[in-house]
């Protein structure tokens, strides 16, 4: 099969190799998926660069990417034969293992390949793992949000765009932050009631003016360390901060007593470590939403498998508005 792999850390153009690798065979409990798409995410780029998981290459080369979509072509022992021919999306493919979705084929545990409704394209399927499941966990991990006010920072980002949709559709009032008119429009289109420019240093004051002084109950936060001080100005006592990144300030200092006397909950979210019941609930809700056509998606760019290095570079540049998809079907 054609695949992308790396056996050293560094820049995408220097590390990522394209060529032929052996096609895998499904083991017990696994399915063999003929991939149509692969969805690279910032976490995949960081792994390749060596910024995280320094022991990743100890056992040999790595095929990157955790997300993707395709069709099951074979099953291992213990998996119903009826799954052959099923359209699926794949998540958590390159976690705790070497071989991800940047290839024509992948073998994964059957439960890591949920059904992809016919109404959803394979491109959409490649966006469902990290972006949509992270957003779901951030919004719903601490209970129902109906009637609550939810702040989504970076609402036009991969996760933020879906977090707005989950919260709005669940009956929350949603406030989002964005940095330009196009991103503001995306936030409003996703269901935000109020959008503020987070480039403005007084955006917390602007938020409170817009709500008549009412603070928010939940925060879905894209930059925990950078945003914490301002978030504390707008969050209610007993509020929850669900955060999935702090890339600009990786060692934030917490004002412990201020947060303690507000009885705040800080929840760190990553799909890989989500409880299995939370993953199952997210998958069930995603299927219902896809069947009903309730989720909006933004595919910013599609590149062929051979150009995977370009995909990594685009993600590192940080200028994409939406998800990037790698086409894994090779003629």
TrEMBL record:
<dbReference type="InterPro" id="IPR013154">
    <property type="entry name" value="ADH-like_N"/>
</dbReference>
<keyword id="KW-0521">NADP</keyword>
<dbReference type="InterPro" id="IPR020843">
    <property type="entry name" value="ER"/>
</dbReference>
<protein>
    <recommendedName>
        <fullName>Enoyl reductase (ER) domain-containing protein</fullName>
    </recommendedName>
</protein>
<dbReference type="Pfam" id="PF08240">
    <property type="entry name" value="ADH_N"/>
</dbReference>
<dbReference type="GO" id="GO:0016491">
    <property type="term" value="F:oxidoreductase activity"/>
</dbReference>
<dbReference type="InterPro" id="IPR013149">
    <property type="entry name" value="ADH-like_C"/>
</dbReference>
<dbReference type="InterPro" id="IPR051603">
    <property type="entry name" value="Zinc-ADH_QOR/CCCR"/>
</dbReference>
<dbReference type="InterPro" id="IPR011032">
    <property type="entry name" value="GroES-like_sf"/>
</dbReference>
<feature type="domain" description="Enoyl reductase (ER)">
    <location>
        <begin position="11"/>
        <end position="326"/>
    </location>
</feature>
<dbReference type="InterPro" id="IPR036291">
    <property type="entry name" value="NAD(P)-bd_dom_sf"/>
</dbReference>
<dbReference type="Pfam" id="PF00107">
    <property type="entry name" value="ADH_zinc_N"/>
</dbReference>
């Amino acid at each position: 099969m054609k695949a992308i792999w790396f056996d050293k850390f560094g820049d995408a153009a220097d590390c990522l190799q394209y060529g032929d690798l052996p096609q895998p065979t499904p083991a017990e409990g696994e399915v063999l998926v003929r991939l149509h798409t692969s969805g690279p995410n910032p976490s995949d780029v960081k792994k390749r660069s060596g910024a995280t998981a320094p022991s990743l290459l100890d056992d040999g080369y790595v095929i990157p990417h955790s997300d993707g979509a395709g069709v099951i072509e074979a099953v291992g022992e213990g998996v119903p034969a009826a799954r052959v021919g099923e359209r699926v999306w794949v998540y958590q493919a390159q976690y705790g293992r070497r071989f991800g979705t940047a290839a024509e084929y992948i073998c994964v545990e059957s439960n890591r390949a949920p059904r992809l409704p016919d109404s959803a394209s394979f491109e959409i399927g490649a966006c469902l793992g990290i972006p949509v499941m992270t957003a779901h966990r951030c919004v719903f991990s601490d209970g129902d949000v109906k009637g609550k006010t939810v702040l989504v920072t970076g609402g036009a980002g991969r996760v933020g765009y879906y977090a707005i949709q989950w919260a709005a559709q669940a009956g929350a009032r949603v406030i989002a932050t964005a940095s330009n008119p196009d991103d503001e429009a995306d936030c409003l289109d996703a269901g935000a009631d109020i959008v503020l420019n987070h480039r403005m240093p007084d955006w917390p004051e602007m938020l409170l003016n817009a709500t008549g002084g009412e603070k928010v109950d939940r925060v879905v936060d894209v930059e925990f360390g950078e945003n914490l001080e301002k978030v504390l100005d707008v969050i209610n006592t007993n509020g929850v901060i669900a955060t999935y990144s702090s890339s600009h300030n990786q060692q934030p200092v917490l004002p412990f007593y201020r947060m303690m006397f507000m009885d705040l909950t800080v929840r760190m979210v990553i799909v890989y470590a989500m409880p299995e019941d939370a993953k199952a609930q997210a998958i069930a809700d995603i299927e219902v939403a896809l069947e009903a056509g309730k989720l909006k998606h933004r595919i910013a760019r599609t590149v062929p498998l051979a150009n995977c290095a370009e995909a990594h570079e685009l993600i590192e540049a940080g200028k994409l508005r939406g998800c990037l998809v790698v086409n894994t079907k090779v003629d």
